[in-house]
Amino acid sequence: MASPAPSTRLFGWALLAAGLGALACLWVAWCEYPVYGWNEVRLAPAFAVRHGINPYPPLGGGPLSTWIYGPIGILINLPATWASSVTGALQAAWGVNAVIGIAPLAVIFFGSRELRARGVAAAGLALALGVLFVHRWHFVMQVADRCAIAFGLVSCWWLARPGKPGGASLAAAAALATAAIWAKQIETFLALAQLWFLFVTAGRRLAGQYSAWLLLFNGLALGLFAWAFGFANLWLNLVAIPARLPWADFSERLAMQPLPMLAQLVAPAIALVWWGRKKGWPATDTESGRFFRIAAMAFATMLPVGLVGYFKVGGGTNLLHSWDYLLPALLLLWLAPVQATRSMLLRVLGITAVALLLRWEDITAVRSKPYTQDFAGARQLTALYPQSIWFPQDPLITFFTDGKLWHNEDGLYTRYLAGYGVRESDFRRHLPPNLRAVAYPSMVQFPFALQLLPEFNQRIAHGYWTIYIASPPSSAR
Fold first, then answer.
1. For the chain, what percentages of helix, strand and coil (3-state, to nearest 5) are there?
2. In the prediction, which pLDDT does 102 show?
3. What are all long-range contacts of 127-131, with beta carbons under 8 Å and residues at least 24 apart?
4. How much is the pLDDT for 340?
5. Rounded CA gap, 168 and 166, in Å?
6. What is the Cα–Cα distance from 439 to 175, expressed in whole angstroms?
7. 138: closest CA among 327, 311, 392, 349?
8. CB neighbour burial string for 67-106, b if at least 16 within 10 angstroms, e if fewer
9. CB 377 within 8 A of CB 465
10. Cβ-contact 264, 310 below 8 angstroms
11. Closest-CA residue to 93 (of 156, 41, 55, 131)
């Protein structure tokens, strides 16, 4: 029996290394995910919908949350609401989040005729590299961006894979793009990139047809969600509040993520311009060339709005969109060539080595089990203060004990930054009625919500948690 070709063996060894690295990174993310109260905050709106609470409260309403994005990300997380504990809900939500991150890449790489021609190992390698090259936040933090990018990526692939998409492909791509837009508002700019791509590669007629499908599906989505949540509520939470959020300090923002900004935004932007001027982008007579073209256009249209979102208060994940559209297209373009030239084989080795080095800290930090031990301390506190303790940054802890959702601090802070005050009566209406204690993770140095509860000024350490209780009234003389 003939031995495998060198290129086949190379893809196999590269897949083994990248696959093990990707699995290690996913395991670390699974273990780390429950640590962040942010993930509870992002999951709480799904519990609200499941239990008949409007996740888009009006002024004076509640409970307040930080969800100022479209409803698709809420609906995606509904499976986690059937869990029987906060740890179970978080682990289920991580599973949903992981599928959202991995499935679009699998659809693209295993659906590519060019990549399949190199064998299953090539598609598997592309998938593993895709997991390694995306920002680790995608699998550690619950963000609306991941859901939006997932639908947007598949929408772009649906448009780019055929030479000229037919009516069914246009409709499917428009439906997916609509889901992306209603997951996060900035994906509206993705539609501009898609129309630009169709106009250039397929002509005005198909671009016009696609515009009609987008208008139809977005009109239907607006009608459905306005009926479910109220048009005024959607406008307040999806448009008015984000528009009123102030600008952050530019120097602080630049210092927050300098390496990702350089590696995933500045360097690709310069490379795309240089490549286009010197050699011209790949031709559109192949699916990898077409997908690269639409991804580069998405990168260009998403970059300005992502930067605007990033330099406002919040919006730290808006930077991810441009790179996450370009990354799969680059991997497909690099790995799809049919001829196994020496340069291509060296490129495979180089890309795999770089991906593993970039994630080496995660790969070498494999833990034995998820971080859930701090919830044992939370259970002790809820037993000590039954129906009377508030966790401002961990809303699901008391949901599973009180059976209700209370305000979360980030929702209060978001409205404060947007200039919408919260009256004391509205604030206290969505707190435990017999409030006796407020619990924060011990690393929180400036508990914002305590400004609204000045009497809770006695601080008690309780392991991972810090408890604030009201001072006893001074005795009369």
1. 65, 5, 30
2. 94
3. 127/22, 127/102, 128/15, 128/18, 128/19, 128/21, 128/22, 129/18, 129/22, 129/331, 129/351, 129/352, 129/355, 130/105, 130/327, 130/328, 130/331, 131/22, 131/25, 131/26, 131/101, 131/102, 131/105
4. 61
5. 6
6. 43
7. 327
8. bbbbbbbbbbbeebbebeebbebbbbbbebbbebbbebbe
9. yes
10. no
11. 41
Q: Quick one: DSSP state of residue 203? A: -
**Dihedral sign (CA 174, 176, 179, 180):** negative
Cβ atoms of 35 and 394 closer than 8 Å: no
Length of the chain: 477
Give the separation between CA 321 and CA 299, rounded to whole angstroms. Answer: 8
Residue found under tokens 């499908």? 213
| pLDDT tens digit sequence for 12-35 | 788 899 999 999 999 999 999 988
- CA pair distance 144, 183, nearest whole angstrom: 6
SS3 223: helix
How many other C-beta atoms can be found within 10 angstroms of the C-beta atom of residue 6?
Answer: 11
**The dihedral of CA 55, 82, 176, 150: what is its sign?**
positive
Helices in 167-203 by DSSP H: which ranges? 167-181, 188-201
Quote the pLDDT of residue 156. 95
Residue owning tokens 């994940």: 317
Give the Cα separation of 245 and 312 in Å (integer).
Answer: 7
pLDDT score, position 4: 45
Q: Please, how many CA atoms are within 13 Å of residue 425, restricted to the half-sphere of its CB?
A: 2
The whole-number pLDDT of residue 421 equals: 77
What is the rounded distance in angstroms from the CA atom of residue 347 to the CA atom of residue 386? 60
Q: What is the 3-state secondary structure (H, E, C) of 351-363?
A: HHHHHHHHCHHHH
What residues in the chain have per-residue pLDDT under 50?
1-4, 475-477
Q: Which letter does DSSP use for residue 386 in this model?
A: T
Count of CB atoms situated within 10 Å of the CB of 380 = 13
- DSSP H or E run through 348: helix 342-358
